[in-house]
Amino acid sequence: MIVRINGVPPEEHLNWVEKKIQSGADWTGDAITEKITDGFQVAAQNLIHAIDIHSAEIITLATIVCAGGVMIAPFIGDHAGKWWGRLAFVLFGGVVWRILV
After folding, report:
1. Cα gap 71→87, rounded to integer Å
2. How many CA atoms, within 13 angstroms, populate the side-chain half-sphere of residue 9?
3. Which pLDDT belongs to residue 11?
4. What is the pLDDT of residues 28-81, one digit of tens each?
């Protein structure tokens, strides 16, 4: 990370104070970035683990909701085509998820 003063990058030849400030800024930026990255990584792993554990229930519930939409949509004036697409997506996505994970 380069510390800029008024949008101007520092000169090529830094004195020892500027080198210490630069190294401190690099260390602080790296530490913050590492903590944020680790947090996102743990959150993503926990989300995938939770979806993997409950994937059969999620797929079943989504299939029931989409099938209900297919049946009810004509009664409320909407066409059932988008619900068929959602149902196919849920079933296909669920099958792929269960096979790959």
Report:
1. 12
2. 5
3. 65
4. 988 999 999 999 999 999 999 998 899 889 889 999 998 888 888 888 877 778
Contacts for 85-94: CB closer than 8 Å, 24+ residues apart: 87/63, 90/59, 90/62, 90/63, 90/66, 91/59, 91/63, 94/55, 94/58, 94/59, 94/62, 94/63
Instruction: Count CA atoms within 13 Å of residue 65 on its CB side.
Output: 9
pLDDT of residue 39: 93
Q: How far apart are CA 27 and CA 34, in angstroms?
A: 10
> What span, in angstroms and rounded, lies between the C-alpha atoms of 82 and 80?
6
